[in-house]
Specification:
Largest sheet: 7 strands, mixed
Distance between the termini: 25 Å
Bound molecules: adenosine-5'-triphosphate
Strand order of the largest sheet: 3-9-10-16-13-12-11
Shape: globular
Number of helices: 15
Number of strands: 23
Strand content: 25-35%
Amino acid sequence: MYPASEIYGGFANAFDYGPLGSQLKLNLKNEWWKRFVVGRDDIVGMDSAIIQNPKVWEASGHLGSFTDPLVECKKCHKRFREDHVEEAKSLISTPPNLPSERGGKDGLTPEQKEMLVCASGGEHDFAEAKNFNLMFKTFIGVTEDSTSTAYLRPETAQGMFINFLNVTQSSRVKIPFGIGQIGKAFRNEITPGNFTFRTREFEQAEIEYFVEPSLDESKKWFTYWLARWKEFFTDFGIKDENLTIRAHDKSELSHYSAGTSDIEYDFPFGMSELAGVAQRTKFDLEQHEKHSGIEQKYFDEANNKKYIPYVVEPTMGVDRATLAFLVDAYDESDGTDGREKGEVTLRLDPRLAPIKVAVFPLMKKEGMPEIAKEIIADLRSAGVATFYDESGSIGRRYRRQDEIGTPFCITIDFDSIKEKTVTVRDRDTMKQERIKISKLNDCLLEKL
Ligand code: ATP
């Protein structure tokens, strides 16, 4: 990942995903979609507009209450989220709970230090907290007045609620069922930071799961989805001990929620929210019914009843998940596993790895590059992301691939010419296997 607008000095906590990063993030989204949309008969997908009629945000409560308390220092005019300042203060009043490599000598991150020390010296002199709406405003058309004001969506969820009727009328779904969506959301965060953990433009992957309207049903599906959500992270390689489930206490709950739990990950800057599951009750559909004047009810044929369903919402940040998978997969050798001390291996699940197979001719002659290129063409036509490398020693070429998480490397040598075989080297075990070229595609596709 690169800082966005880097040649112009960067741009406030925005990042661009490069060739490998964009592929990693895309693989993650594809696996999510395969598992939760394509892989289930109770969930359908959608892709809604980022800019909707502003009435959507009035109905959802975002215009009125999607705010964070903001404090501004009267001396340096820096602004911070009040709850973030409180958190930083509590870290110095209690023994710092972060190891030194995570936040410097005193256990504070650079952002937290900025919250406690004023640039003009001493402590900040904060004015009273003001509520600050996090939605980005824009204007539609040529005039810039209140009638042309619109907003970039702060969550993908509302796109699914306002299409509830369209989906029920066009896709023959029956309760319980869900709508899934992956897309960008925008929040004018007061204190973004920690790399891609908190940015102003980010992606979410969410499901709105509609169930019969009772707290018992809602609770049952809430428990179910919390387990499926955590499983997604562990099945794709995140170590269980690095994940925690934390229930929100009453004061933290969003205006719509009858219960929310976050899945937190042990990021290098501390345990922080990666994903969550919320019981949104019937709040959103009821609000849209009131504000649009159009009934948002479901006719339950099996029970001959008409009702507004309850909603359970599993949500995750795609950028935060990408970051967590990266951090969790990062492994520096201690020198006892056959690698040199300090050598980096990115132990990504093969399904997430941006490059799946690298192909190396041992030498740039004897027809080895030609065999390598034929193998690459075959793998590419089977949809496998490959990389060709003919420079440097084979050991160096392996190391370059280990660093970016490529699970398999193929080497073409003299036996490839005589016996039509190649070696396949496994990133994690470093073991090499000789395989017939004619069997290579099937063998790799199975491993991947
Ligand atoms: P936080 O408490 O960290 O501000 P939130 O509880 O407001 O997050 P939600 O509204 O539940 O977040 O959004 C769903 C998911 O979207 C979060 O679990 C998180 O992974 C992701 N997310 C939210 N805000 C950001 C952001 N500014 N940058 C990156 N990802 C974000």
